[in-house]
TrEMBL record:
<dbReference type="InterPro" id="IPR020826">
    <property type="entry name" value="Transketolase_BS"/>
</dbReference>
<protein>
    <recommendedName>
        <fullName>transketolase</fullName>
        <ecNumber>2.2.1.1</ecNumber>
    </recommendedName>
</protein>
<dbReference type="InterPro" id="IPR033247">
    <property type="entry name" value="Transketolase_fam"/>
</dbReference>
<dbReference type="GO" id="GO:0009052">
    <property type="term" value="P:pentose-phosphate shunt, non-oxidative branch"/>
</dbReference>
<dbReference type="InterPro" id="IPR005475">
    <property type="entry name" value="Transketolase-like_Pyr-bd"/>
</dbReference>
<keyword id="KW-0479">Metal-binding</keyword>
<keyword id="KW-0106">Calcium</keyword>
<dbReference type="InterPro" id="IPR009014">
    <property type="entry name" value="Transketo_C/PFOR_II"/>
</dbReference>
<comment type="similarity">
    <text>Belongs to the transketolase family.</text>
</comment>
<comment type="subunit">
    <text>Homodimer.</text>
</comment>
<keyword id="KW-0460">Magnesium</keyword>
<keyword id="KW-0786">Thiamine pyrophosphate</keyword>
<dbReference type="Pfam" id="PF00456">
    <property type="entry name" value="Transketolase_N"/>
</dbReference>
<dbReference type="InterPro" id="IPR055152">
    <property type="entry name" value="Transketolase-like_C_2"/>
</dbReference>
<dbReference type="GO" id="GO:0005829">
    <property type="term" value="C:cytosol"/>
</dbReference>
<feature type="domain" description="Transketolase-like pyrimidine-binding">
    <location>
        <begin position="163"/>
        <end position="335"/>
    </location>
</feature>
<dbReference type="GO" id="GO:0046872">
    <property type="term" value="F:metal ion binding"/>
</dbReference>
Length: 476
């Protein structure tokens, strides 16, 4: 096999409809500058400049080989390269004319002043549009955002519905997109399954609908996620894009880069577990939710009902310093009852959903669950309660957010002296031992899934009231 790919890059990008400038000598500044000017002159399509280069150019003996890539050239070869390139300056010495050419402070000040004058004239002519523009590029939310989004959440709590959390996600998009004209959505060829379209969605097209607000990315999970990061870096928009949770693997690097760059990219993942059903283990996530939780500066949410779904979306929109992963089910989920205090605490990532007794401080056992398994935890708690066991149920839609809470709050939810704990999640079990400890138990996945209806799979892998109760009794 060849040591490099044999695609015809020029023809490939021409087939995409790009403007392609081929065969530019990557070591010739004049050719590069000319190509850049050609690219700037083309305003109807993106441009690809194909530069032909030699790795290690200037090194007489190591150019065009890996020897100049992964190791120092060495003193003799550096001297030879200096002679070839006619470079007479000492190490780290920058010639004055080169420094002056690269020093953009003065040019930048001129450009900034011109921009400010143009913006001021725009603001005078169109004050409302200018104010809206400024709000968006400054990543500020509308003045009515806090009140309207909270009212939506409270409305959901007051009007229970047993729906799939992917549908709850769509309802949240519908409510929030009407408040956020900067929303720019999309899906990697799964819009009808991810449920990311809303009534105001307008797909962007090259010729028509260039002012749309939804991108049909095609089967390009990595491309979608990287483009979202670019949109976030540009500013003025809040990008969200969706695929199946399993296919997050194709985009992992772009998700990690969003976290590294601290960009507000909203990654939406549906069909979150063996609850996907008959498509089988190739499409059923097991370790993916935990893998997302482990990415620094990424906040991952796996809500248990329509209320937690709306809270997760609200938190993701309000988080300016990094991305969020929002994980939703294919199957319907029952809505949980909550007091006003519990509703407020959803945004803290983990909270007590079911108290064990009136004084609320002395449980015999704590059940911790997320997503579709919260209802299972509640039913298991009812059985144990009937047998005289005092059980607290903790819903933890976001471990990342919960871990950031102050120590007093974390202790109030998971008292350190209560060591008898069982975690329940239809994902890899290993992640949860940080919460249940060596004395605890985890009802989770330790293998790939199988192809069968969802209800049969949950039973097969132990996500039943009987198994949760049995695991609890092992440590009581």
């Amino acid at each position: 096999m060849d040591g490099w790919f044999t695609d015809d890059t020029q023809k490939r990008f021409e087939a995409y409809g790009w403007h392609v400038i081929p065969a530019v000598d990557g070591h010739n500044p004049e050719q590069i500058l000319d190509a850049v000017k050609q690219a700037q002159a083309e305003t109807t399509k993106p441009t690809l400049i194909i530069c032909k280069t030699i790795i290690g150019y200037g090194s007489p003996n190591k150019a065009n080989s890996h020897d100049c890539h992964g190791a120092p050239l060495g003193d003799d070869e550096i001297a030879a390269a200096r002679e070839f390139l006619k470079w007479e300056y000492a190490p780290f010495e920058i010639p004055a004319e080169i420094y002056a050419e690269w020093d953009a402070k003065e040019k930048g000040q001129v450009a900034e002043k011109a921009w400010e004058e143009k913006l001021a004239a725009y603001a005078k002519a169109y004050p409302e549009l200018a104010a809206e523009f400024t709000r968006r590029v400054n990543a500020e939310l509308p003045a009515n955002w806090a009140a309207e989004s909270q009212a939506f959440i409270e409305h959901l709590q007051a009007n229970p519905a047993s729906i799939a959390s992917r549908k709850a996600s769509q309802n949240a998009i519908e409510a929030y997109a009407k408040l956020l004209p900067e929303f720019l959505g999309g899906s990697a060829d799964l819009a009808s399954s991810n449920l990311t379209l809303w009534s105001g969605s307008k797909p962007i097209r090259a010729v028509e609908n260039a002012d749309g607000n939804y991108i049909n990315y095609g089967v390009r999970e990595f491309g979608m996620s990287a483009i979202m990061n670019g949109i976030a870096l540009h500013g003025g928009f809040i990008p969200y894009g969706a695929t199946f949770l399993m296919f997050m693997e194709y985009a992992h690097n772009a998700v990690r880069m969003a976290a590294l760059m601290k960009q507000r990219s909203l990654f939406v993942y549906t069909h979150d577990s063996i609850g996907l059903g008959e498509d089988g283990p190739t499409h059923q996530p097991v370790e993916q939710t935990s893998a997302l939780r482990l990415i620094p500066n990424l906040e991952t949410w796996r809500p248990c009902d329509q209320v937690e779904s709306a809270v997760a979306w609200k938190a993701a929109v309000e988080r300016k310093e990094g991305p969020s992963a929002l994980i939703f089910t294919r199957q319907n989920l029952a809505q949980m009852d909550r007091t006003a205090e519990q509703l407020a605490n959803v945004a803290r990532g983990g909270y007590v959903l079911r108290h064990c007794c009136e004084n609320q401080t002395c449980p015999d056992l704590i059940l911790i669950a997320t997503g579709s398994e919260v209802e299972l935890a509640m039913k298991a708690a009812d059985v144990l309660d009937a047998e005289g066991v005092k059980v607290r149920v903790v819903s933890m839609p976001s471990t990342n957010v919960f871990d950031k809470q102050d120590a007093a709050y974390r202790e109030s939810v998971l008292p350190s002296h209560i060591t008898k704990r069982v975690a329940i999640e239809a994902g890899i079990a290993d992640f949860w031992y940080k919460y249940v400890g060596f004395e605890g138990r985890v009802v989770g996945m330790n293998s790939f899934g199988e192809s069968a209806p969802a209800d049969q799979l949950f039973k097969l892998f132990g996500f039943t009231v009987e198994n949760v109760v049995a695991k609890a009794k092992e440590i009581l």
